[in-house]
Amino acid sequence: MLKGIDPLLGPDLLHVLAAMGHGDEIVIADANFPADSHAERLVRLESASATRAAEAILSVLPLDEYVEAPAAVMSVVGDPDAEPEIFAEFRHIAESAHAASVEFDRVDRFSFYERARQAYAIVATGERRLYGNLILVKGVL
Fold it and tell me: Is residue 1 part of a domain?
């Protein structure tokens, strides 16, 4: 155990977060996301929801302030303007951790998959809600 570190952040995930550089992306993926086939580096947090994983990760990960949108969600197929409840939860978590407004991109399914393939790592969660996927862009301290 480490003092001041969320207990959900185990050694593998802490290593990934510390090794990421400015501008690198990390994906928090729901249980339906094809994480194994898309990940360069995969960390499994299957006992956690995507929102709980986001809280833990954002407790130590600075968001990139030099990009227009340091966070992205997968837009709903067939209804890109839809706002699933989990989107508002992601926004609240990001803005609370960042202590400022955070701009979110909405990315269509296949573009989201392509960004995930290019991401530094994917965190596979046990999130069962649809569209519980989030991309975060690492910033600087």
Answer: no
Query: Is 113 marked active-site?
Result: yes
Kindly list the distances between the CA atom of residue 140 and the CA atoms of 61, 66, 75, 87, 137, in Å, as whole numbers in the listed order. 9, 9, 27, 24, 10
In a domain, 121, yes or no: yes
Q: With a cut of 90, say whether residue 2 has pLDDT above it.
A: no
pTM over 0.70: yes
The one catalytic residue among 30, 38, 64, 131: 64
CA 90, distance to chain mean position in Å, is 9
Give yes or no: 36 in active site.
no
Number of domains composing the chain: 1
Q: Which of 6, 12, 92, 113 is catalytic?
A: 113
- Residue 64 is a catalytic residue: yes
